[in-house]
Write a sequence for this structure.
């Protein structure tokens, strides 16, 4: 189980890198004004959409969902307001 958690944490770091990459691409796209270039990018995206129709979850993602379901079932949740307060308190300590 510990190995699964370690793998899960590594995947989270990789997913964060992917999110950063995606956000950087989006920021770059907003700056592009060349219509032909944007059209070409749009065609590339349209041609790859068929590969994205079905989401394939990794074992780590499945584990994360199972852990989330367990948290919900066992009422281990926190409201967004409480979470925000905890975040602010944590930031003040830094």
């Amino acid at each position: 189980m510990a190995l699964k958690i370690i793998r899960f944490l590594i995947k989270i770091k990789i997913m964060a890198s992917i999110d950063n990459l995606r956000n950087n691409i989006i920021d770059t796209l907003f700056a592009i004004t060349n219509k032909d270039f944007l059209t070409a990018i749009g065609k590339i995206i349209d041609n790859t959409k068929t590969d994205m129709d079905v989401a394939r979850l990794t074992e780590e993602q499945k584990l994360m969902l199972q852990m989330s379901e367990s948290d919900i079932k066992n009422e281990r949740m926190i409201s967004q307001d409480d979470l925000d307060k905890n975040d602010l308190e944590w930031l003040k300590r830094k």
User: Anything to note?
Assistant: The mean pLDDT is 83. DSSP finds four helices and no strands in the chain.
